[in-house]
Amino acid sequence: MKTLRKVTIKPVCVEFIPDKKDMVQDEIYISAEYKTAVHLCLCGCGNLSVTPFMDDTDWRVMLRQSNGRDAGGLSIIPSILNTNCPNRYHYIITDNVANVV
């Protein structure tokens, strides 16, 4: 697949997912306790993208720890297709970069 654009995202570890009105574009909120990652769609439409990473789903969330020099990186596999988005945005997140395909 050809990358159409790249979006730098910021992982934010939280206990509880914030209300949609309190979310910031291009931030992904990760709750390890509730095994869910949620973010506003990367196209800017304002719709939510919810990625459960429980044992019975295909998604895996990997967050590389910071070592002082490195801010760490978030990767989610496989790709995310946001069906709540009118544009049906599809992207792969690797090391804090979403490659929109």
Q: Sheet bearing the most strands, described?
A: 5 strands, antiparallel
**Silhouette:** globular
- Look at the helices and sheets and give the structural class: mainly beta
Give the uncertain stretches in residue-range form. Answer: none
SS summary, helix count? 0
Number of strands: 9
Strand order of the largest sheet: 1-9-8-7-6
Task: State the end-to-end CA separation.
Answer: 6 Å
Describe, in plain words, how this protein is organized in 3D.
The chain has 101 residues and is mostly beta strands. It has one domain. The protein contains no helices and 9 strands. A 5-stranded antiparallel sheet has the order 1-9-8-7-6, with no helix packed on it. Strand 8 and strand 9 form a beta hairpin.
Keyword list:
single chain; 101 residues; mainly beta; 4-stranded mixed β-sheet; globular
Structure in a nutshell:
The chain has strands at residues 5-8, 10-13, 27-31, 36-40, 48-52, 60-64, 73-81, 90-94, 97-100.
Chain-wise SSE layout:
Layout: E1 5-8, E2 10-13, E3 27-31, E4 36-40, E5 48-52, E6 60-64, E7 73-81, E8 90-94, E9 97-100
Parallel strand pairs: 2-3
Antiparallel strand pairs: 1-9, 3-4, 4-5, 6-7, 7-8, 8-9
